[in-house]
## 1
Amino acid sequence: MRLLSLLCNETHWSVLNRTAGDDGGNWYLNDCFNNLVIVWPIYVLLTILSSLLTGWISGIRHTGVPFDQSLRRLMRFRAAIVCLILLIVSADSLVTTLHSTLTTAVYMSTTVQITAIFIHLFSLISCLNSHYRPKSKSVCIAFDVTVILIIFVNVNQIYTFVVKDLHTYHQLVCYTIVLILWIIYLALNVLSSQKLMTNEDERVLIDRNDQISSLSITCDTIDNQLINEEMVDIISKLTLQWVSPLMKRGIEKKISSHNDLFRLPNDLKSKNVSQKFETIFELNPLSDITTNDNDNNVVIVRQKSRSLIKSLLKCYGFELLGVGFLKFFSDLFSFAGPLLLNRVVQYLESGDHDSYDGFYYSLVLFLCSLLSSMAISLFNFYINNITLKIRSSILTSIYSKIFIVRSNTLDSRFSTGEVLNFASTDTDRVVNFCPSLLQFISLPIQLSVTLYLLYVQLGLAFVTGVVFAIVLIPINRCICNKIAELSTKMMDWKDKRIKLMSEILMGIRVIKMHAWEPLFRQRVIHLREQELKYLKGRKYLDAFCVYFWATTPVLISSLVFGTFVLLNGQLTAPVVFTSLALLSMLIMPLNAFPWVLNGLMESWVSIKRLQKLFDLDPLDLNQHYNHPIADSNFKVQAMGATFASSDSSRKRDISYRFVLGPIDFTLTTGMFVGVIGKVGSGKSQLLTALLGEVQRITGKLGINKSDFDAGVGIVTQEPWIQNTTFMENILFGKPYDAQRYNAVLDACALIDDINTFTDGDLTEIGDRGVTLSGGQKARISLARAVYQNFDIYFIDDPFASVDMHVAKVIYNKCILGLLGDKTKIVCTHHQNYLMKADLILKLDSGQVMASGLPQDIITTGKMKKLSKDEEKPFEEQMNATNIDNEFEFRIKEEEREEGVVKFAVYLTYMRSVGPYLSALVLISIGLMQASKSASDCWLAFWTSNNTDMSSKSSINYLIIFICIAVLNSVLTLIRSFVFAYSGVMAALRLHSSLLKKIFTARIVFFDVTAFGRIINRFSTDVFNIDDNLPFNLNIFLSQLFSLLASIVITVYGLPWIALMIIPLSVPYYYIQRYYRWTSRELKRLSAVSLSPIYTQLDETLQGLITIRAYANINRFMREMYLKLDINNKIQYSTAAVQQWLNLRLQILGAIVSSGVALLAVSLHFWSEQIVDSGLVGLALVYSLSVTGLLNGAVQSFTQTEMEMVSVERVMQYIDNIECEEDNVDNGSIDNDEDNNDNVDNRRVVVDNNWPNNSIVRFSNVSMRYRPDLKRALNKVSFSTKPFEKIGIVGRTGSGKSSLFQVLFRLVNVEEGNITIDGIDISTISLNNLRSKLFIIPQDPFLFSGTIRDNLDPQNKYLDNEIWHSLRECHLESLVLSLGGLSANISERGRDLSCGQRQLLCLVRALLSKTTILCMDEATANIDSITEQLIQQTLTTVFSSATVLFVAHKIESVLNSNRIIVMDSSSIVEMDEPENLLRDESSAFYALYHR
């Protein structure tokens, strides 16, 4: 009976009750019996069945039958109905709890009911996401029976309501709606059951899949990956217990790669996501795009486009809506805290020591906190999954879009840096659109409910707080609009900075040789200053947001309580502390609103930026090839075809003015066509035009479709090399065929080169082939094309970068050998290799000037026809088998620290902020939190001493309270701006140090470090340091100080709670320790996994023509899918461990808050201690915040630690990169100034006229690139005479380029020394030395900008001097046609031919008036006539200079004063060319006459 009394407040048990009435009344079920015997068991049964269903779903991944569309729609309707039921029941229960005194049985039955419906909803969602349905109807039948029983319960509730004549009509409405929904749900459930397993064929399929299931289990035991949430039961899903095995691996330090993490769910795999999104994107209706023509002030409709944002919403809108319900449930249950706090404080103030109500309130408080914690944890986890899908959709769409756009169209609109920014920063911002959108919908609801509850507590006094909040809305909106505007401008400058850094990294070797580091560093600093200008604006506006966020609770509480007192309201503990809790809930949506709007604005800005990429016209091959070829013997046909690269949005582009054609020819099977012409005549553009890369304007063009679909072997003039092994570059996705592979290596003269590598053809080739010479890159590119065994080949000057012997081998064994029966077009300046062509096309200014047989077109002169067996191979003369490769480097694995982020990293960040500024930040945050807590303590003191309720007394209390609020406001403002300024200073100093370190790094660093890794530091890591790290650090410090204040005040208000907090600190410590160990490794893996994505994107942009021509798009898409899946797996695991922590810490917080309530109630119930309701109310308010603060402190600290990994990665470069000798100390955080002046003091000072005689002397010089490699130069000795022209020849890898490496001190000598005019160059500062020399590299380096900027980067010469040099190099007409010196050149000069770029570099040399000129194959891509003119110019202009000329074409060095022949890293002979040619035993004689 005592138990019955405790549960139902009844003294005896009864089943039926009867209402009073003249007619004897109506019978109805006793409430206690109904709740304990009927409601409880039925909903427990629903819980059990739902759990079994979820577990069953996990087991039928391989044994179920896939959903059809109709069944899937039914499941969605069922899930939606259960959502509505849960919402209505929860809202009704909450309202009833607040306005009625209920029995324990009712509390418990209501809790069970809500929990059961919630779990059932979760099971339906799991079933819907599983893509499979159970193989038995028994589960569905059991659910049907259970739903029928639930309908009976609801009918009984309505009947009881009517016969008892209750007046809570809202309950009658709720009961009726829920009953209708359950009946509809039953009908849908029966309909679903009829569709399940209706024929025997499906059962056979299931039995077959049962066998597959057993095999998959075996695979799981072999694979080291962990199972994800798809394969676990509902309890594990709700509690995230399935994440624990990963946490265990983290603490055991067993996480070293993505294979140690969870398997990626099927619906998160990037291929599946991409296919789904592309389908929806293509179904999206087309809309016109309008652009403004600024010249004519008209609007032009360019093309049709599909909206990216509409496609994203259509694809993921329903999933967002489903996840949004979890957010709604969490918000709903969170309102129980303040309201139950009110009940507890009222109970403590009452004199009733026998009531159990306080215990009920404590229990319900814990249950509501628990349900809210589970809902928000699941919401965060699933919203992260949706963001991963959106991220994969955008990245794969960007990648696939690149493949369907002409390369020149892409180059003309976007730089490489901009595309990389699209894939990194812009994609991340669009991904944030989803959580921001849900918050945007959720915040107004939270605001409305909070305002209503405040009205219940304070009456009309709450209006002042609302007015203040309304005033804040336009202010916050203005701030958000301004932030969005500044973000757009900041991103534009960031794009320019990344673009410039990309160009710098690509041309770093040339920049160092020209001593242009200060110039380009200053350009980056200028762009960075502009970027920081807008970053500062954003940060200071963010500071206002932080100010409003932190000070608004105190200001609003001052206004509200002040108004309440002035309206003669009585401030009691229940009113004050319930209102404080509600005000805290009010402030969250008010202050979050600008952040949410800011996130939406930034997302919108990025969406519009991305839309520009998706708006590019696709390459329509059906339109380009408008002449179908039916005869298989015909390969390519062009009839009056003209081509032009035009883009109305880029009228000043160089390619806009160049028209190619008309072209007329027909290629049949096995035909050999040669294309000749001057530099810039259109040879290379002809090949790309035939592939569709240049738009056809008129005429007809056709290509054999079967051959084109199989692939066309394009070999570009600028070789495209992947960052992989030698072999993989050649195989290029094809299966390994040893016989053909060896034949290709032999035909492309690569066998000797491979033998020089330590690892042979398994040697890693550096980024863009930096570890290879120009000739090696060209031959690998040729070998890749030949190995593919296509029927059609377009080859662009394969002989330009190789010596005469290698060129002969390529011609005989490759062009005439392996490709002898192939259809091929060969463009070249080496006309003697076209004598066996079937057709010659001679181009000039884009037009075909002549066509015919070789003997009719080519002026033979001294050119002689080559044969395969003229004489013995040159390598026998040169001992080529002993050649050592000049550049052999192995690309290092990207560095990844392990364990905790070292304290030194935090100290580095503090040093970058500044020690005094760091201390000021901590002091200001501490004072701000102290003043905020003081205001709350003053309220507790006020309500505890309210015996004198005179107006004067209340005003005194109020004045002090307002003074504290004003002090808090001032301290908060100071704290906000101090922190914003500190973040900007850290960003400035860290980037500056990183930039200095990169510019002063030894050249070997760039040879062994992939481009994507370096650019990742300057893009993602710098962005994290600029934005994410200060943001998260700000949150962490605020959460930390708030948590400490909450614990102190809670213990002060109720000291006995310390007995609970101290034991709870043990699990808290271990939980956060488990989490931090795992999350750190995941963050590091995530950072490392991003670089391959960006590297592949960059490689694809460089090799787009090759990939598309080789029909390898699908393979590259698969590789991108794989790399994205690796990163998604890491992000998925990261989200899982974050919510694992979130749930457990929130449970600890719920225990603390309910423990405070329970302890206060217990002390009151047993009258053990007089409880101060004011202090207890204050303790309860702060304990309620402990739930969020415990999680927030660890989450924000972990997030801060994860963002600190970016500082750690930047510091890896700042601390570990080996600098050049003159820059040993550069890059230090504490050393903002260069130390070149100090270095110069230790160096020999040379005058401005040095060198006078330009005598270069090598004395026994030996050099190796790394200690473990063979010597690249071995005891090289020679000396030039004053103003002598020296030609240098030799096989690839013989050491020719290494002479320039040591002369410019890019690599230090191991033995010997080099002098210029008698001065040892090692005693001269690098800047002085390199500025006195000049080099024209084999790979010409041009950067985006005007022609004048490229020719005279340092702005040292007058325009007439530049025009004179242009005339000397025969470029005046070209520059005039382009628009003069102010004409813009695109990134890397892609709008110009390779020969034109080399000539522009030659103009630089003429302007420099150097006395020592080094030329490394400077005329390799120039036709013979132009080269003869250039040679005459060099002879005239540099008559008073020493010229060192490396060449493969013998004719280029015949007019030299002396010639050096190199072999095996040594000088074989050095003499005048006439003497060498007279000596038949000389190596040069054999080279010339073979």
## 2
Amino acid sequence: MFKRTKVTDGTATGQGPDAENWDGKEVGFRKKSKVPGVMITQYIEKLPEGKSHPDFTRKPIALTIQEGKFAFFKAIVTGDPKPTVVWSRNNGDVSDPARYQSKYDPNSNEHTFEMPHVKPDQADTYKCFAKNEYGQAMVTVVLNVIEVGFKMTKAPQQQAEVANCNFKKVLKRRSKVVPKAEEPEKKEGEIDPKFWELLMSADKKDYERICAEFGVTDFRWMLKKLNEMKREREEEQAEFVKNLSDLKPIHINADGTASFELEFDLLDPSSSIYLYKDGEMIPYTKELGDKMKHCLRKVGRKYIFSMRDLMPEDAGFYQLDVEDVNMFSTDFKMVDFLVKIQEVKAMEREDAVFECVISAPLSKLMWFGKNMPLEQGDKYDIEVSEDKLIHRLVVKDCMVVDKGIYAACAGIKSCNAWLVVEADKGAPKGKKTARKTTRAGGSGTDLQKVAQEQQQILDKEREERKEKIKAAREAAAEAAAAEEPEKTADSGAGKDKGAAVKVERIDKTSVAATTTVAGDSGSGHSAGKASGGAKQDGSHADAGGGHSAGKASGGARKDGSIADAGGGHSAGKASGGAKQDGSHADAGGGHSAGKASGGAKQDGSPADAGGGHSAGKASGGAKQDGSHADAGGGHSAGKASGGAKQDGSHADAGGGHSAGKASGGAKQDGSHADAGGGHSAGKASGGAKQDGSHADAGGGHSAGKASGGAKQDGSHADAGGGHSAGKASGGAKQDGSHADAGGGHSAGKASGGAKQDGSHADAGGGHSAEEASGGSRQDGSLADAGGGHSAGKASGGAKQDGSLADAGGEPGITSGLSDIHAIRGQPAELTVKMNTDCDGAWFKDGEPLKSGGGISITKDANIHKLTIHSCRDTDSGLLRFVSGDLSTEGRITVGDVPEFDEDDLHKFSKPVIVRVGQNAAFKMPFQPQESLTVSWFKDGTELKDGGGVKIVREPNHSRLLLRDCLRSDSGEIKIQLKNPFGAVEATSQLIVLDRPGPPEGPVETVETTSSVIEIKWNPPKDDGGSAVTNYIIERQERGHSLWTKLGDVSAEKTSFRDRNVTHGKKYSYRIYAENPQGLSDSLETADSIMAGIMILSGPPGKPKVVSTSKTCINLTWTPPEDDKGVPIIGYQVEKRKKDTNQWLALNAINEPIEDVNYAVKDVTEGAEYEFRVSAINESGAGDASPPSAMACAKNPNMRPCFKDPEDFLVVRAGNSVRVKISYEAEPPPHITWLKDDEPIAPWINVINTEGMSQLVIPSSKRSDSAIYTIKAKNSVGEAFFDVEVRVTDEPKCPGPVELEQTVYGKVAVSWVPSPDQELDDRLYYVVSQHDSNTRMWKTVADRLFANTYTAHNILPGIEYHFRVYAKNDMGLSDPSQSPTWGANSNRVPISSNGVSSMEISFERPPSILVPLKVHTPPKGYQLYMTCAVRGCPTPNVSWYLNNTCINSDKNYYITNSCGVCSMYILRVRENDGGEYRVVAVNSLGKAECSTKLTVRD
């Protein structure tokens, strides 16, 4: 007794449907769904009739997708009443409509949960609830999101994690193998990291192959190193998996997909599994049937990775990781065919060989025969050469059923060819021939030579790798042995200053050459890049010093100085400036998360790069003197760069928590350039100087750019010094004056005026929101443009003295605003130009605008600009500029340029290949947008809907259909999406496959000899869209109509040597090009080509006339005495009529007369002819013989003779009589006809023609019966012949029949003669008898010429009846019936006195009285087979031989007389043997009997 358990749903609060109103405590009953993974809770124990709880017929599918793509789940639910569907997630809510959208399609009943532009924080486990009043169904689905790139929004979070030393979460998920685009330049001889990964996943038997491939020869060292790495890897793997086994490398499957597999158990089922190709993560799906290219599915403990739609770019290095630990690595290589398999023609019971050569060693190819994979066995031998380059398939003992297409596959490359099996015509019929020892087929080329050449190429590449590794090891050994002076390197503000470290690039996937360098680079937690400025003197360059996440690299040096790269926890790069003197370069110096590098030096000074917690890039200025360049020193998230110097001055770039870029000005003297010094988020740059003055650019928390003015004297330029969010720039000076640009919290741009004297230019000094610009001066006066919190612009005019110039005029707008479309995330600028310098204000949708929040408002004289630094959707609206009473407006619309999904773009880029006459379809999905124009192009020409072009536009995709494609339709197909923000295009290729065009002519004759003809041609202009595979050559001998196939040659060859030619004969050739679509039209030779040179035979002997007739003249002659050494194949006979000059050939040259005699039948009677003969050899007809003597076409004299006459003829009275007699006689005889030796009557016609005479009686009578004699007589003799003609009719029936019993058991039957008895001496009688016992009529007497017959075996109690027929040559008369004879013939009927008597029925089913007997007659003898059958009514009897009815077969004579069934065979044959069966059937039943007939030899 099962007890049902009541449960409560375990959905967490906030995750289920109606989370706010449902307390999660409803009691329910668990139900099982037909769909695995669906949990059903039924609220009541018994459902009402017709109602049902919710259930899923299609559940959502787990998805792994790249960040920014369109993610969605689909589900189909059932239930009555219709359930409501709600979606939720485990860690978070789905209420944001911009990120989560639930949709329902009533047509397909699909519920869709969409996430446009999916982000990494949306990766979670999602739940779908379907609920009605009777229950609910719930299913979970996982969404994995692959992150792309570094996100600035995550920087604070990542810094916090760095502070807690949680670096695993900071770093982006990557493979241990670096992608090709990012891998550093390898040192010469360095081993590829893939080498160790492949070894750790390979079988031991493959070690030698992998080492040979990567050029490793030190196996002892390799095994030692491999064991160490394996132990380390196994410890890492044990944290996540157990029982790792059954690693199978990637291979191509029969269905065209590639896959690799392995088995393991996850310790934590929630552990993430990642796939990589060449170090880059690839998305995949976990469900079969999905449209994604890559799939990872689990079958028990086995994990199978597969990919479909293989392309050449799919080749690469694949890895499978669980969390951060690699589990399996395999290399997928593409192998090409150097020599493809060729068509094989084999005789029956002969072995056929297919062979090919590949470009790289491969232990096994996949062979297919008639679309079925082939394996080594009794039928097939698969052979591989030692170098694994030559592969062979041997089809043993070929039979006709083996004919078909065979293919060899190596990865995605394949080649195929036909096997043609010809039957052995010489084999005895019905017997199996012996197996042949020969082999047919082969490639026809020297495979060993091709393989050796390829092996030499591979060996050369392997040796080059070995030499590089050897050279690298020797160089490392020499470097370790040499003692070089080392100097300390200062690393800014870091922790381990001046410490020497050993940098060895050893990770878990590679072993590189070890080098030792000295220096200290990076001592902070820099997240950016710190770079020291370039120096050529003894000055000091200091670049970077914060918590940089960039890259730190040691600088290159040419002297004895020390460069130190990396000293902290840097994930970025800090680089010291380049130096050529004894100065000091400092690059990086903290717990940098990147790489710190000291600058390059040529002297003994140290290089120090970096020194703070910078998150950007700090760079020291370039120096050529002994001055000091200091770049970066704070927590900068931007870039700090020291100014360039050529003297001993000091350049300081960056020194605070700047998020921008600080750059010192360029100097050529001993002055000091200071660029940046605060928490600037912009860029601070010191002015350029050529004297000893000091340039200071930036010094506060500026968010813009501070730049010192250019100087050529000893003055000081100071650009920026406060919390400016704009740009401060010092004026240019050429004297010793001081230029100060910017010094407050300005949000605009402050620029000092240009000066050439010692005066002071001060541009900007307050919290100005615009730009203050000093006027241009050439004297010592001061130009001051702006100095407070001005929102406008003050501009001094150009002067050449100390005065100030001011510009003015009547205001007016010369260039106003217009509507623009801006791209989201890109800057946009709106400009208004006035005719005078006047102020103005900007408004958006009626609200005033001010600089800030991503918007800058500037004024330059009479030009007003509004700049949006990064356009957002909120920036859309109506902008208006107002200046006094003047205004202009324009609308800005922010949007995106249309874009394609990368997966869709990849699919669309694949060429569409169709055959001629087929339809080609293209489809391109895209995101729905407004004002989107879709256009299709072919080879640059836009396609329009109509004719054979069909264009369909849907909201989210567009389709192009090209109907009935022609070869000329091949080309580039392009789709263009265009909106007001821009356009995007995607291209594909349409390839229409067709038969190739004919080969290009003319056909050239390369060589012709008595045994060889070599021809040459050119490839076709059009290959039909697919490469020509081979050429087929056919030959026709001159004078013949039959074309014979000689063979085919590969597409690489355009020549053919015909070795089967006969000397002197002429041949025509035609060539076809073949590709997978079929044969081209033929290219035929213009003229016949003769093999060798022409040698004609001598004349035969003079013809002699053997006999003549009026229709024929018989000739004979002798062969020629000199045949010139060439065999004679026949003769040609010519005739010439007397008194004419034209000789007429009686036979063509290609139809020679093989004998030395000939019967000329083309003659006219009485005409005279002469004849001559020519001998024919391979080269043609030779000289003619002398003519024969004149011969007349007439018959010789002969006595008349008759040819096969008939001597008896029977004709029905009233019909015509026609007697034909053929004869031969010369001269023509005189013909006479006689009737009974008397002349014939005049109404009898005689018709005489040449060789025949006819006697015709139009309407014959009985009196015309007689013997007719024909008499033929000529001068030679005479001949006679008699023909008996009998004219008769069907006889009349005999008279009455009488019966009389003479003795017991005998009855005398007599009748009156037929009236025709006296007229026809060939008339006779036939008697038939019938008795009441058998109830059948049977003939008891035939050919009776008397009028009586005695019947025997007449039994008492049985009734008998007799019939008498008269019969002659025309047939039977009607019968004369006798009276009844028997038991009741004289009995008086007895009345029944009212008592009814029972009627007796004689009906019975068939039965076999005498069965068939067994017969064994010899072959050729006659056979008589009989049996007896009875039944009433008379049964129908059928004869069968081996269950085949033979009643209508003329080879068997079958009779059925009174139940005696007989079958007669005149001459027994072999196929007459078998089982004979007699079947008798009537309405009451069936009976049968059978026997066997055996024919003896």
